[in-house]
């Protein structure tokens, strides 16, 4: 028959608990910085891709193709930024950061 006594839980000293909390805080800060860098990369990447289309619009000699490239650049830049924001919000919501 198994022993019915509950397992002993080790109580941390205040110093050990403070060290554990400090380590958790460092991990949280690192994760937050990495996520901010990925968001910045998403913002600047979509903006740069949109600007490539816009620049190509000014290089074309056909006005119809120029307008197509111009509107495509605006659309790509804006949708990329909105997608980056949405994915960051969803990730934060999933991890309980909100």
Describe the structure in brief:
This protein is mainly α and 98 residues long. It has helices at 14-59, 63-95.
Q: Which terms summarize this structure?
A:
98 residues; mainly alpha; 2 helices; rod-shaped
Write up what this structure looks like.
The protein is an all-alpha fold and 98 residues long. The protein contains 2 helices and no strands. The protein has helices at residues 14-59, 63-95. The radius of gyration is 25 Å and the shape is rod-shaped. It starts with 13 loop residues before the first helix and ends with a helix.
Structural class: mainly alpha
Q: Sketch the topology as an H/E string, one letter per element.
A: HH
Radius of gyration: 25 Å
Largest β sheet strand count, sense and barrel closure: none
Q: Give average pLDDT, whole number.
A: 90
Q: What global shape is seen?
A: rod-shaped
Number of helices: 2
What is the CA–CA distance across the termini?
47 Å
SSE order and pairing:
Layout: H1 14-59, H2 63-95
């Amino acid at each position: 028959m198994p022993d019915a006594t509950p397992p002993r839980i080790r109580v941390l000293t205040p110093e050990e608990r403070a060290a554990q909390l400090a380590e958790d805080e460092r991990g949280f800060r690192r994760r937050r910085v990495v996520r901010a860098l990925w968001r910045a990369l998403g913002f600047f990447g979509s903006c740069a891709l949109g600007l490539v289309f816009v620049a190509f619009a000014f290089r074309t000699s056909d006005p119809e193709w120029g307008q197509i490239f111009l509107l495509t650049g605006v659309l790509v830049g804006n949708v990329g930024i909105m997608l980056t924001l949405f994915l960051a919000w969803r990730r934060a919501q999933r991890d309980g950061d909100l």
